[in-house]
Design goal:
- The chain has 720 residues and is an alpha+beta fold.
- The chain folds into four domains: 314 residues, Collagenase (Catalytic Domain) (3-Layer(aba) Sandwich), CATH 3.40.390.10; 103 residues, Immunoglobulins (Immunoglobulin-like, Sandwich); 177 residues, Jelly Rolls; 87 residues, Macroglobulin (MG2) domain (Immunoglobulin-like, Sandwich), CATH 2.60.40.1930.
- The chain is built from eight helices and 36 strands.
- A hairpin with a 4-residue loop joins strand 32 and strand 33.
- Helix 2 crosses helix 3 and helix 3 crosses helix 7.
- The chain starts with 7 loop residues before the first helix and ends with a strand.
Length: 720
């Protein structure tokens, strides 16, 4: 008997049903936002970050409560327009159209202005009373970070089929991560559109979460208006994630239904868990059991897009305060202003040299010249001036098309000692007036001091920075500072604030004057250090604050590390410290480093490098760069007794260090032992040994130095 084959159409219908069933189940169970997961991951890695966030929330609550008590409006005081760049990172760019991005921007603006759903009958009357209207608006960026025209849409074709919120690869183009690099987060609200894995529709960074080059929002391309993610394709995902970007939490407080969590907002009801299906009317749950119930229509819930209708007034106030204190630079950005391309516009984009420290009073400036005008640049005058001194002019000729640039080397300049400002600016592009002067000039602070002789001692009791010292703070964030919070001697020291610095990995250099250690016999760097951690030093795989001491023999261009400590090897307080560390008098340790290997280099600078691990504050005091020059007679003889003759005290000296010395014995001419010094433990700690012979009678004496392999003797005279 032949088995009957199933009807193909029936199989097809069944397959479609299964696909729809599982897709629907996926949406119902979908954790549409990965922001809290990402934040908790950062809290776990850096517990101090949680303390900072809790303190910030308390401060914001106080400000908002004061506004409520004073009767001030909770609506944003004035309109704020924030430039947005959409980085479309897909392996098929056709999945997202420019029209969808414009529709997404329109949705974002309507939702934040509160225009679309104000008075909407689906919003309960009790919730209409707290309906929020924000003055925050968004525009597509009209210029890129180089001030070139832009549509605000940055398309990057990637080989990656999807991205994850666990690694943020979508925000990085290097190291085969396949993403698109951030545009200056101080000037742009960065939004990445991509394919996201793990059923996530989007995620965002909270302000000051410790990763400056990842600030912004990531959304799944299917969540755009008209996208492929059924139920979640009205563009509300970006509205939700932008709320996180302005420090809003989920409306249910992410407490898994315990009713103990919080979103830090007073006018949102307590809610047991997220809402994942379409709801209408009054809905209550285990946390809010009475009318009007939970606010499932809030943008910070997980309700399908069609039912997301509102922010509350205090959510708006919270976002405005967050903007004012943590993201205000977005409001002063010029990225919403279209580029007004002039015909003739020469600019100095960068000063390539000198560095901020010179080791010679003559230097050769180098700059990046850029043509910002529509007319090909064929000549321009480049002017250089130190402080308010004589202007040196150089005429550049060549051919620079619009938005191209070139490095230009200028004539050498000479500077006196001191701290100075170098100003370089353009004039006379193509022999006529520059039509846009705002980008003509750049300035650079630099210093030149001739090498000084050792010793260099610094306890930071006077002006900061001391003469000849400088700081390299490439990121422009927290850096070395003078403090009265602790000192080994006096009242002041220098401190690196790591406790509140969330930018892990940032490097800050405190650099000494250039010191001449040539023609000496030995050289040393010593200093006092005080340090603590936030995390227990037994924690595995932690990122610690690190202190390095570096030597440069080429004016800070390159360095050699001579000291590196972190974690348990660095700290001077053993217990983990959960508040800002302030050392007591006993919580300092003296470190000394032999730098005699660098004597042949002549001039050196010493740099103290802090690498931030967001642990706790680090202190330095009593820095001393010193040299030792040995008596020429001692260097020749290798063994001296001084003074000779003596009226009582003698010093027995060796050169070089007598590592095999076993003992020193003093005899009179009768062969009687009158004093001795034996080496115990096998460690020779010094090359100088002092004896007090005041109580012995005058006459001739013999000093015998016994080594493991030889004996040396010297005679001296004791006068009466």
């Amino acid at each position: 008997m032949r088995t009957k084959l199933p009807d193909v159409r029936s199989l097809l219908r069944f397959s479609i049903y299964l696909a729809f069933f599982f897709f629907s189940q996926d949406l119902i169970a979908q954790d549409r936002c990965g922001s809290i997961e990402l934040l908790e991951k950062r809290f776990k890695a850096k517990p101090a970050l949680k303390v900072i966030f809790d303190n910030r929330q308390a401060q914001l609550q106080r400000i908002i409560q004061q506004r409520v008590a004073s009767g001030m409006s909770l609506k944003t005081a004035q309109s704020i327009t924030i430039p947005v760049v959409f980085h479309v990172v897909l392996n098929r760019q056709s999945l997202v159209t420019d029209a969808q991005i414009q529709a997404q921007l329109d949705t974002l603006n309507l939702d934040y202005a509160g225009q679309r759903h104000k008075g909407d009958p689906r919003i309960l009357a009790e919730f209409q009373k707290v309906y929020g209207e924000s003055g925050i608006q968004f525009c597509l960026a009209q210029r890129n970070p180089n001030d070139e025209p832009s549509t605000g849409i940055d398309r990057v074709t990637t080989t990656k089929t999807s991205f994850s919120n666990s690694n943020d690869d979508v925000k990085h183009s290097t190291n085969n991560r396949g993403g698109a690099d951030i545009w200056d987060p101080a000037r742009y609200f960065n939004v990445w559109i991509c394919s996201l894995s793990n059923s996530i529709l989007g995620y965002a960074t909270f302000p000051d979460d410790g990763v400056p080059d990842e600030q912004g929002v990531v959304i799944h391309y299917g969540s755009l208006p008209g996208g492929s993610t059924t139920g979640f394709n009205y563009g509300k995902t970006l509205t939700h994630e932008t709320g996180h970007y302005f420090d809003l939490y989920h409306i249910w407080g992410d407490d898994n239904g315990s009713c103990s969590g919080t979103d830090y907002i007073a006018d949102t009801p307590n809610q047991g868990n997220s809402t994942t299906t379409q709801r209408t009317g009054i809905v209550t749950d285990n946390c809010t059991t009475t009318t009007p119930g939970i606010m499932y229509q809030n943008y910070m819930d997980y309700t399908p897009d069609a039912s997301l209708l509102m922010f509350t007034a205090q959510q708006v106030a919270h976002m405005e305060e967050t903007f004012s204190s943590l993201r205000s630079s977005l409001g002063t950005s010029n990225a919403c202003t279209p580029v007004n391309l002039k015909n003739k516009d020469a600019s100095i984009k960068a000063i390539l040299s000198p560095d901020q420290r010179l080791c010679s009073n003559t230097f050769i400036p180098q700059v990046t010249l850029r043509n910002q005008g529509s007319e090909t640049l064929t000549s321009v005058t480049i002017n250089a001036q130190i402080d308010n001194g004589t202007i040196t002019r150089f005429t550049w000729t060549g051919s620079l098309a619009t938005y191209t640039e070139t490095a230009v080397t200028l004539p050498s300049l000479t500077t006196p000692e001191g701290n100075h400002v170098l100003t370089i600016y353009t004039s006379n592009p193509n022999g006529t007036t520059d039509e846009e002067t705002s980008n003509d000039a750049l300035s650079l602070d630099f210093m030149y001091y001739a090498p000084v002789a050792a010793p260099v001692t610094e306890s930071f009791e006077s002006n900061f920075l001391p003469v000849g010292w400088d700081i390299v703070n490439a990121d422009g964030g927290n850096t070395w500072e003078k403090t009265l919070a602790g000192a080994k001697t006096g009242s002041a020291s220098v401190r690196m604030v790591n406790f509140s610095n969330l930018a892990v990995g940032e490097k800050d250099y405190l650099r000494s004057p250039t010191v001449n250690i040539a023609s000496t016999d030995s050289a040393f760097v010593s200093f006092q250090v005080a340090a603590a951690t936030y995390t227990s030093v037994t924690t595995q795989n932690n990122v610690w604050d690190t202190l390095q001491v570096l030597i440069s023999t080429d004016c800070g261009k390159t360095y050699t590390s001579i000291y590196k400590k972190w974690g348990s090897t660095l700290i001077t307080r053993s217990a983990a410290t959960r508040t800002v560390f302030q050392p007591t008098a006993s919580e300092w340790r003296r470190e000394e480093i032999n730098i005699s290997n660098f004597i042949s280099s002549g001039n050196i600078l010493v740099a103290f490098l802090n690498i931030n691990g967001n642990e706790n504050d680090l202190y330095l005091d009593d820095i001393n760069i010193r040299t030792v020059t040995v008596n020429p007679n001692l260097k020749e003889a290798g063994f001296l007794v001084t003074p000779n003759p003596t009226d009582g005290a003698i010093s027995v000296q060796f050169y070089p260090h007598p590592s095999t010395l076993k003992g020193i014995y003093i005899y009179n001419t009768a062969g009687q032992l009158v004093d001795q010094r034996e080496i115990t433990g096998g460690v020779v700690a010094t090359n100088i040994y002092d004896f007090d012979l005041s109580n012995i009678s005058g006459g001739l004496y013999i000093v015998k130095a016994v080594f493991t392999d030889r004996v040396m003797t010297k005679k001296f005279v004791k006068v009466k």
